[in-house]
Amino acid sequence: MVTFKSHNLICERFILGPLQVNTYLVYESGSDKALLIDPAEESPTLLDRIKELGFSETTIFLTHGHADHLAGVDYFRTQLSGCKVAISLEDAPMLGDPDLNLSSYIGDQIALEDAEIILNDGDHLGAEGEIAAVPGHTPGGLILIFPGMVFSGDTLFAGSIGRSDFPGGDGKQLIKAIKDKIFTLSDRYVFPGHGPETRIAEEKTENPFFSASFTI
Length: 216
Known about the structure:
Layout lengths: L1 E5 L2 E8 L4 E8 L4 E5 L6 H10 L3 E5 L11 H7 L4 E5 L14 H4 L10 E3 L4 E2 L3 E5 L8 E5 L2 E5 L2 E2 L2 E2 L9 H11 L7 E4 L5 E2 H7 L10
Parallel strand pairs: 4-5, 5-6, 6-7, 11-14
Antiparallel strand pairs: 1-2, 2-3, 3-4, 8-9, 9-10, 10-11, 12-13, 14-15
């Protein structure tokens, strides 16, 4: 577990699953509510941490509907009383379809129950979190924006961007979404779905996918 703090927000990162997904536990200091972002596998360690902190409410936020980011949903949904799942309208059908969420291609098939919360661009999650739609990696990719932090899922990585060659992907749409929804924000930390954290300012100037010579 690695912990980050910004403003009143605390973020704990757990690297889970065979594809080393960054699963984040996010909460405000003194709050009894938490967000669990992209639970990638069953993790008793993470579950114990959630129970240790004593949250009365934990909401699972899925940045998108690929299997490696949701393989732990049922485990936490079952273990945490009243736990609800939030995902975009466009990616919601992926939860129950192993072909759409790609689990039928990478391992055990995953078919989840419907999400309790459907999110759209501009919605809010948590006291200060704002949802922004970033299609391109999947049709319904979402990011979660806080003061000082952005949780980018598989949209933007340190020095790279998400794949767009999966069903429903669109590389041009992805790059446009990053420019419109992330690069227009003030500089802050970016916490991606895989790999190390980065900053918006660094990606704007150094990410090769946004150089003048790059075409897709």
